[in-house]
Amino acid sequence: MPTQALFGQLLIGLINGAFYAMLSLGLSVIFGLLNIINFSHGAQYMMGAFVAYFCLQWAGLGYWWALLVAPLVVGTIGIVLERTMLKRLYHLDHLYGLLLTFGLALVIQGIFRNEFGSSGLPYGAPALLTGGYNLGFMFLPTYRAWVVLFSLAVCLATWYVIERTKLGSYLRAATENPTLVQAFGINVPRMITLTYGFGVGLAALAGVLAAPIYQVNPLMGADLIIVVFAVVVIGGLGSIMGSIVTGFGLGVVEGFTKVFYPEASNTVIFVIMALVLLVRPAGLFGRAS
What is the domain extent for residue 81? Predict the structure, then answer.
């Protein structure tokens, strides 16, 4: 096996893992606080890519502005959905939230597919991140290195805020006993709404990062969300660090599988999920309820 091909697959695995980690992180944040399995996460990831495309085509705003605008726009849309629909389901079974968000995903994808078709729309990487570096054993494209490093920084910053700051302690306390937290003068419903908007914003940010690599496509999140749910289950529902570690780790495993046993590359994550559920039903980093 040529060394360049091996490291090339490692890079592809890290890129896929970066998107797995960011999307599963958003899912874990939403589930941990809202108790909602957000099946529309893939559609919101796609919307982030389209907002970046609209910013460029309609407003002349490039990639760097899109990194800021897309999470804000899609996060605001998510907040409206949470206030009008999802808040009615918090005290019901998980199945109701899953069905509602699954229906929302189908509606959003259908609207974009009718307007823009199923073929991808090109979106170029910024000039600052074009080109690459010859490392001797492989060629490292600058943009792909940026995606991996930026995604890792966002994931670790999110973990730090939730696990190591006072705001994060309020969020975690609100998941356990919202009535007690509200007694301390904290507006728990507003906190829940903003947390959902933040989780959706992470998906939109991942969409902007993915646009120059995969193009902008109405169905770009449809297949990815199934894999991301498997990543969340393996890491443990609601586990922030579990989402980050398993996201990047499974991306690498998938990349190496394409080298040594390509036939299993599309199923290896689901095989790992089945094995983990047999041994630890709560996931590798999850806590048994």
Answer: 3-102+139-279
